[in-house]
Amino acid sequence: MKTVKLILLSLAILACVENNYGQTESATFPEIKIWISKSQYSNLQGKGQRVTLKNPVFLFNKDTAAVKEVHSRGNNSLTFEHKSLSVELDKAITLHGGEGKTKIKKFDLLNLVMDKNLWHNRWAFIAMSRNGLFPLFNTFCTLWINDQPQGIYLLVEKPQHYTASIKSPYMVRRGVDHQIHNEYIETESKEEIKKYKKQYTSLYSDIEKFKDKELYDQMKNKIFLEHYFEWLAFNYLIMNGDYADEVFLYIRPETGLFDVIPWDYDDILLPAPHEGIATRNAVQGLRNKLIFSSEEALDRSIAMNEFLYQQYLGIFKKMLLDLTPEVIEKITNQVADELMRVSADATQANASLFLGKDAFRQDQAKESIRVALSFLTGRRNALLKQME
């Protein structure tokens, strides 16, 4: 009889442990539920239009959160039924993720519709966060609207939320041909704004005025070059096809220098940049350089000025030595584990549609991650050998 009781007790304990483990793991990923009117939901599902939600009810892990604004965001993602969303809350909430916790009130919910296996952005963000290159909080999450599953999303802190938290007075989003796509201003001083805007534009006018070490000295007085070089090198390592206009540059208040916040890593592991390999290689002095894209004038100047390029290679090598095969494997395993757990909810996994068509599949994601781990490790080793 005692034996039977012990067995039953053991089974009960195991069931309890299993249940607690499941609760702990599932709590890692926020569950967001939004309720809006039927007409708004219909409009939100439409293609190509930006929609601001009116009077939404917003639940975060079953707790109501007061909303200041929620609207659809992005360009390509607007053409799909499940939209990426920009969220601003009235009060900050506490979020937990793989790298710790944070209080946040402004964030984006990215639908990952351009990434078939959902892991590219999360992997890149973790890899870049190790050296402070990507400071934004991010985590996988699930989204429901009017009780309809929208799929697995990536919740990412807004760059302007982070820069405001460190009291940065000024930030730009770099656009095509280094035009200022957006400005984010946290100072009332018109002189300060004028100074920082000139600091940004002079990065490009200096290209025409200076060369080699003189140009390097001018640049390092305006931008945190080690981070810019590292970001450029990382894009080469992971073969990021679209990055020239996917970066924010913000003023670090303690130095007065611009620093980088990278953005959008859907298009990685591509054989050529967006402009095409022929266009890239046609740029004088770039063909044999370890810079992936020719689209950005600042990057072309780094490639074509030998002193600058040697400084860049030094940072590139340092980054590769730090990103050991063991580190690459650890990051990859972390992302794979997170993705398998968040996609255990088959309802949300099936709602995650690549290009609005193909549902997420765990087996395909596992294989994609396995192949990428092998490829990136081999590419890292080959690049180090090339730099010897």
Write up this protein.
This protein is an alpha+beta fold and 388 residues long. It is 45% helix and 22% strand. The protein has 13 helices and 14 strands. It is globular, with a radius of gyration of 23 Å. The termini are far apart. Residues 1-27 have low confidence and may be disordered.
Mean pLDDT: 91
Order of helices and strands: HEHEEEEEHEEHEEHHHEEHHHHHEEH
Structure classification: alpha+beta
- What value does the Rg take, in angstroms? 23 Å
**Number of E-state strands:** 14
| Head-to-tail CA distance between termini | 72 Å
Number of helices: 13
Low-confidence stretches: 1-27
- Largest sheet data: 8 strands, mixed
Question: What percent of residues adopt helix (DSSP H or I)?
Answer: 40-55%
- How much of the sequence lies in strands comes to 15-25%
Gross morphology is globular
How would you describe this structure in keywords?
388 residues; alpha+beta; 8-stranded mixed sheet; 13 helices; 14 strands; 22% strand
Briefly, what is this?
By secondary structure, the chain is α+β, with helices and mostly antiparallel strands.
Task: Give the topology.
Blueprint: H1 2-27, E1 31-35, H2 38-45, E2 57-60, E3 63-64, E4 67-73, E5 84-97, E6 100-110, H3 120-129, E7 138-145, E8 148-157, H4 159-165, E9 170-174, E10 180-185, H5 190-209, H6 212-220, H7 225-237, E11 247-251, E12 258-262, H8 277-282, H9 297-304, H10 306-322, H11 325-342, H12 346-351, E13 353-354, E14 358-359, H13 362-386
Parallel strand pairs: 1-7
Antiparallel strand pairs: 1-2, 2-3, 4-5, 5-6, 6-8, 7-8, 9-10, 9-11, 11-12, 13-14
